[in-house]
Amino acid sequence: MPDLIAYKLLPAAAWQAMGELGLFAGSPVDIADGFIHLSTAAQLTETADKHFAGQDGLMVLAIDLPGLGAALRWEPSRGGQLFPHLYASLPLDKVLGACPLSRDGAGRVRLPRL
User: Which of 13, 22, 94, 97 is the most buried (most CB within 10 A)?
Assistant: First the structure.
């Protein structure tokens, strides 16, 4: 497994709903694709730029990958890179940390403190 932590970008309202429901079933794109899209730390800024440009009120969630078990698969996607895909709902107890989306001086997405 390439990484032990992956990241999910989602609107603050979805994060709030996740807190109430105890899980995240996926965004409309996730549901259409049949899995929840996650990114590694190295992939996160490009994911934000490509799929979330111009959106405000986003949260960055740090996800415990080993805790997802067999529902997690590493599959080729953008540019042939392996991305973590979750073929199940994301349980709240696998979220290690969360923060509003912000960027450092170089434009990279800041990761949640763990």
Answer: 94
